[in-house]
């Protein structure tokens, strides 16, 4: 797990810890209204340390913390958008324009009874057909190669890969050990296409009207999850809630993932 922290002007250090690691997801394709959230849901804990390394509470800053989630490929490249790839259309060979001299030559051949002109006349069409098949084969190979990475589809415009509540705000809950934790919870994130991905979390701070202190443009903390495998709907099996997810559900937090079995069967 990749953890990074920054030290803003208040001399505090921030650290992300993923306490609920997603393992699998259900690709929703072009059906966002029937999508199923990743399982288990993504939950991250924020830890704050003072300049002496002592863990402290968020205090008055807590309402202004926000966490943004983005999608990465398995090897760490941005995968937030599906960018359509244009497929080349084969161009058939155009017949050469006839000239008076060529007409005379053709008339002469026909009157002499030579039958080879029919065969030679078909040759350009045959070679054009071969080129068309070759182009189609190379295009299919390109699509299959991209589809293997989970980043290719038939969308005609750039389309977002993630659906759900991408930004989250901090809140305090008890974990499975009855300890108070400052958590960012993403209960209904879904991924559009099949593939292997990672989620990146970035902590930022919203400006406060009661403070004139400048808000840093960089992320206070950042972390990247383990690899999440997104599969087709028929292959998706949701994980049984346990650990901190069970603890949060017992405190009344609503996880749509817990109803995913009903969604799959409907």
UniProtKB/TrEMBL annotation:
Transmembrane segments: none annotated. Residues 108-121, 134-145 have a biased composition (Low complexity). PANTHER family: SPORE DEVELOPMENT REGULATOR VOSA, VELVET DOMAIN-CONTAINING PROTEIN. Keywords: Nucleus, Transcription, Transcription regulation. InterPro entries: Velvet (IPR021740), Velvet_dom (IPR037525), Velvet_dom_sf (IPR038491). It comes from Tilletia caries. This is Velvet domain-containing protein. Residues 86-145 are annotated as: Disordered. The lineage of its organism: Eukaryota, Fungi, Dikarya, Basidiomycota, Ustilaginomycotina. Residues 122-133 have a biased composition (Polar residues). It is found in: Nucleus. Residues 8-258 form the Velvet domain. GO terms for cellular component: nucleus. The keyword Methyltransferase does not apply. Pfam families: Velvet.
């Amino acid at each position: 797990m990749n953890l990074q922290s920054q030290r803003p002007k208040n001399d505090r250090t921030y650290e992300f810890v993923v306490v609920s690691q997603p393992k699998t997801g259900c690709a929703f394709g072009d059906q966002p209204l029937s999508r199923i959230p990743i399982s288990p849901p993504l939950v991250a804990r924020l830890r704050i340390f003072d300049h002496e390394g002592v863990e402290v509470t968020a205090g008055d800053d807590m309402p202004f913390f926000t966490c943004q989630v983005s999608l990465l490929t398995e090897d760490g490249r941005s995968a937030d958008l599906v960018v359509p790839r244009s497929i080349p259309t084969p161009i058939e060979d155009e017949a050469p324009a006839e000239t008076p001299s060529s007409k005379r030559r053709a008339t002469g051949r026909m009157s002499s009874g030579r039958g080879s002109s029919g065969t030679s006349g078909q040759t350009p069409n045959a070679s054009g057909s071969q080129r068309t098949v070759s182009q189609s084969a190379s295009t299919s190979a390109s699509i299959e190669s991209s589809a293997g990475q989970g980043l290719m589809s038939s969308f005609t415009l750039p389309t977002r890969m993630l659906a759900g509540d991408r930004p989250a705000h901090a809140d305090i809950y008890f974990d499975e050990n009855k300890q108070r934790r400052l958590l960012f919870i993403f209960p209904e994130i879904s991924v559009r296409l099949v593939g292997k991905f990672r989620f990146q979390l970035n902590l930022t701070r919203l400006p406060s009207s009661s403070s004139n202190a400048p808000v840093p443009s960089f992320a206070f903390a950042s972390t990247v999850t383990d690899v999440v495998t997104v599969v087709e709907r028929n292959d998706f099996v949701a994980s049984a809630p346990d650990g901190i997810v069970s603890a949060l559900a017992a405190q009344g937090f609503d996880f749509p993932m817990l109803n995913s079995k009903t969604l799959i069967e409907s």
